[in-house]
Fold this sequence. Notes:
By secondary structure, the protein is α/β, with parallel strands linked by helices. It contains 19 helices and 20 strands. The chain has a seven-stranded parallel β-sheet with strand order 9-10-8-11-12-7-13, with helices on both faces. A seven-stranded parallel β-sheet has the order 16-17-15-18-19-14-20, sandwiched between helices. Strands 5-2-1-6 form a four-stranded mixed β-sheet. The protein starts with a strand and ends in a 5-residue tail after the last strand.
Amino acid sequence: MSILQVKKKNETFIEVKCSPGIAYELRDHFSFMTPGARFDPRVQNKYWDGRKRLFNITNGTLFSGLLIELIRFCESCDYKIAIDPELYPSDIPKFEYAKFLDHLNIPNNFEKRDYQEKAFFHSIENDRALLLCPTASGKSLIIYLLCQYYRMMHKLRTLIVVDSLSLIHQMYDDLRDYGFQKEINRIYAGQEKETRAPITISTWQSLVDMPKKWYNQFGVIIGDEAHKFKAKSLVEIMKNAENIRYRFGTTGTLDEVECHEMQLVGLFGPVFEVITTKELINRGTLANLKINCVDLQYQKEAKIYATKNFYKNYHDEVDFIVTREKRNEFLLQLCESLNGNKLVLFQFVDKHGKVLKDLFEKHATQPTFFISGEVDGIERNEIRKTVNNNRGNSTLLATYGTTQTGINIVNINHVILASPSKSKIRVLQSIGRGLRKGEIKHEIMVWDIIDNLKYGDYTNHALLHFYNRLEIYNKEQFEYNIRHVKIRMDLP
């Protein structure tokens, strides 16, 4: 029987000693096709097969978080595996969870839920984990519990790595809201990187050039919204954090991620599904969700125009759709007809977002706010708070990119998907912007705008993308209906 010897190299890598034949098997097993590889000239010219391989066949190293998958591989192949005891999880000091919570003195308006406790114990029992947390599941409270546990029980400092400046400020606000009164260091452009604060929050962009010794001051690293991190940068950070034993990642989805699931598992640990969005709705934790699919049925001339001009060009079709004056006027009329706070999500800033901004500021009877990448994180946070505190009607125009991860706006009553999209991440997280219950809100309405230019045997790209979104709604068991609206499209 073949035997694999596995020992700890550091907190990021394990070393695997095995026969050359098994090493090649491991190289292929721990590999995946890189996104867009088929368009790479090296693949097209057959110089590269497009696969990223996580097992280093030269030195036998593999990301530590893939140890369990390595064990499964050995079981399936009937290989014997000998594991270094140093790779086993740490012993947990005895403590009572109820007393721990009492000591933290978290305000009563924050509900402590059973699945948060399970995620917390799973994390500390395994030293590492990739927590699959849907929007509004109370993920930041789980992060806070981990920070406080390792500070109090192990005297360790925590580094929280996020995707954007706005998430730095939001995480900071969340920790303060939970009652954390000690120093919190925030690292972004121009800010001090040296500190003795028990918690440091930074964007991953600010850390990519930090030397290995800088990370030695931390005992815990948490990657929040880890699916948004660029793979190369995240790998570099986690390599440099080679002495940090306790490492956790959080993500809302593992589909279409920037950093492949296998890499995320390797860097943070096996996936633990905290809870699903449907379960949260059924529990009454999230607002009841209803999706109104608005089928914009354009006139025959528009369909013929689209068939002739956009048959093989998705980008031109989307550009054409979002720049139609009549369509933008429809979005304005829709917002004016709805009561409560509206979040209108768009993709393109100049050709769509700013046009909508001008249109709404001229003709809307309700306050209008605007967020794009040009709006700095502090101002975004202030807009978020303003909309959150608004008890009347308002409209927030925002890009998908600036709102799809972590922006917490509780009192949103309607989410309008104003740009065509098939991305599961974008769709689920856009919906999630409005799922949190507010003091006066118990239901969220999502308005999915469908651009129906189907003509004869031709089905336009935007309509095909809607079919993709329908698959998501069905898989997630979301309630939806389809409404048909006739609209004339202004042609060139």
